[in-house]
Amino acid sequence: MTGETARQLLARIAWPAILVGTIGLALLAVLAGRGAASAASQPIAFSHRIHVENAVQCLYCHSNPMRSDVAGMPSVQLCVGCHSTIATERPQVQALVGYWERGQPIPWQPVVEMPDFIFFSHQPHLGAGVSCETCHGDVGRLNAASRVIEMDMGWCLRCHLDQSEETVGRLTDCLTCHQ
Ligand code: HEC
Ligand code: HEC
Ligand code: HEC
Ligand code: HEC
Ligand code: HEC
Known about the structure:
This protein is mostly helical. It contains twelve helices and no strands.
């Protein structure tokens, strides 16, 4: 499956007519692939691994994916709920409490972000039983969240093409993701 080239993928959606022309060329440039993993430098050295090993659930901190289009980032208040008592002697926890005392949000840098012209929502995916790890990799074992999986159009399409016959037409329709 992953061995498929961009051309083969597009052929499977059967719209060769559209492919001819500039759109097709732009598309192939996108599908040709980008750099692999990237990690953003964050204002606080937050470790997913430490928290997940301490049994804090993904949805405890990213609590919106079923209710809205975004998974949502945890508030400083949520962090301080534990860190007013846990590990208060650590410099990074003190820096965290500093944001709280100044009433400032922590300016987390986005790691995975779609361009504005893409429509993506967590809701249908979690509803269909796709796990966080399928798309984000094993974040729970990382210190800094990074873009382990390159989320380009080929990646979206490969999975959408694997869905049931009744839905595959809708899931590969340009307007499902491009609005
Ligand atoms: C449910 C409780 C809980 C929440 C919520 C929580 N933490 Fe923690 N945090 C912990 C525990 C437990 C540890 C490990 C403490 C230890 O090692 O003794 C920890 C450790 C840390 C450390 C120290 C890591 C190190 O290198 O020693 C930092 C920094 C930190 N958390 C930041 C945050 C931030 C930022 C948030 C909010 C996004 C947050 N935590 C939310 C429980 C929590
Ligand atoms: C204690 C709170 C906490 C828990 C638990 C937690 N996260 Fe996070 N997550 C954060 C914080 C804070 C950031 C921003 C810092 C960073 O990118 O590392 C973040 C960033 C992310 C990002 C990158 C978002 C972006 O900006 O693009 C993803 C993806 C993610 N988390 C997925 C998960 C998954 C999957 C789990 C469960 C395995 C999980 N998180 C558990 C707090 C948490
Ligand atoms: C089908 C793939 C897929 C699944 C499953 C998935 N994500 Fe995401 N996630 C994405 C994509 C794509 C983005 C970028 C969205 C954007 O920029 O519009 C994203 C963005 C995020 C972000 C940062 C932006 C935001 O929405 O707040 C967090 C945090 C996150 N995901 C956490 C999670 C967690 C936690 C789970 C499991 C409960 C999960 N994701 C499941 C694909 C997925
Ligand atoms: C691992 C598999 C997988 C990946 C990767 C994936 N999707 Fe999906 N997507 C699904 C499934 C399964 C559904 C739900 C199908 C259903 O409703 O039966 C879905 C549904 C959707 C829907 C809702 C369609 C509708 O009309 O209900 C949109 C929009 C969507 N995906 C966009 C994206 C985008 C954009 C990406 C890439 C950034 C992506 N998906 C990556 C599996 C995936
Ligand atoms: C399942 C979701 C999905 C479907 C269906 C889809 N696309 Fe995309 N498309 C994407 C994503 C995601 C990107 C952005 C990729 C990136 O940033 O690497 C993209 C990027 C593009 C771009 C590049 C735009 C730019 O400026 O970078 C073009 C052109 C494009 N798509 C055309 C199409 C056409 C034509 C169709 C219908 C045959 C289609 N797409 C169907 C998800 C989808």
